[in-house]
């Protein structure tokens, strides 16, 4: 299954010049734990980096820095790990595991941001598949009991 089928399309974005206060407010308003830092490139939204709620805590709270004194570009994680929208979900899982990240911005054919896939998205997919597998086992057992009782 391609990543495009499970990624979230409503990505919250910020400009590299936005303050971390602005980024934190975006996270609060949109109920997300990360914001993708982007730039406009001839009408295409190109991802540059990502900021997580943990990044904000480590950059500001742990160092007692004002959220207006630091920009998104100063704190964003880079180089940014991304994945192509046509790559398989198992590729995303392996990339997250090998790179130690929980989120991957998803890129379209022209390198533009089209979504984001998270470890939570993959966990939900795997849980659904395991549930389907468990239902197969249960159904098989019921059919066997039914055949033996006839």
Layout of strands and helices, then pairs:
Layout: E1 13-14, H1 20-30, E2 34-41, E3 44-52, H2 53-61, H3 72-75, E4 83-84, H4 89-99, E5 103-107, E6 113-118, H5 119-149
Parallel strand pairs: 1-2, 4-5
Antiparallel strand pairs: 2-3, 5-6
Helix content: 40-55%
Radius of gyration: 20 Å
CATH superfamily: CBS-domain
Q: How would you state the average pLDDT, rounded?
A: 90
Q: Please name the CATH architecture.
A: Roll
- What proportion strand? 15-25%
Element pattern in H and E: EHEEHHEHEEH
End-to-end separation? 41 Å
Which ranges are low-confidence, i.e. pLDDT below 50, for 5 or more consecutive residues? none
Give the CATH class: Alpha Beta
Extended strand count = 6
How many structural domains in the coordinates? 1
**What is the 3D form?**
elongated
Kindly report the CATH topology. Answer: CBS-domain
Question: What structural class do the secondary elements suggest?
Answer: alpha/beta
Largest sheet: 3 strands, mixed
Number of helices: 5
Strands of the largest sheet, in order across it? 1-2-3
Describe this entry's structure for a reader.
- Helix content is 44%, strand content 21%.
- The chain has five helices and six strands, in the order E-H-E-E-H-H-E-H-E-E-H.
- It is elongated and about 75 Å long.
- It has helices at 20-30, 53-61, 72-75, 89-99, 119-149; strands at 13-14, 34-41, 44-52, 83-84, 103-107, 113-118.
- The strands form two sheets. Strands 1-2-3 form a three-stranded mixed β-sheet.
- It starts with 12 loop residues before the first strand and ends with a helix.
- With 150 residues, it is α/β, with parallel strands linked by helices.
- The mean pLDDT is 90.
- The chain has a single domain, classed as CBS-domain (Roll).
- This is Histidine kinase.
- It holds the Pfam family CBS.
- Residues 7-70, 76-132 form the CBS domain.
């Amino acid at each position: 299954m391609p990543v495009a089928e499970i990624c979230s399309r409503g990505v919250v974005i910020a400009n590299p010049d936005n303050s971390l206060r602005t980024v934190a407010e975006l996270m609060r308003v949109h109920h997300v734990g990360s914001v993708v830092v982007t730039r406009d490139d001839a009408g295409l939204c190109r991802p540059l980096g990502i900021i997580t709620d943990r990044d904000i805590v480590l950059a500001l709270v742990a160092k007692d820095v004002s959220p207006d004194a630091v920009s998104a570009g100063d704190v964003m994680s880079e180089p940014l790990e991304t994945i192509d929208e046509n790559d398989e979900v198992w590729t995303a899982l392996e990339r997250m595991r090998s790179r130690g990240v929980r989120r991957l911005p998803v890129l379209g054919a022209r390198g533009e941001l089209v979504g984001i896939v998270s470890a939570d998205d993959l966990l939900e997919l795997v849980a659904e598949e395991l549930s389907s597998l468990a239902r197969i086992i249960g159904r098989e057992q019921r059919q066997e009991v039914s055949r033996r009782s006839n």
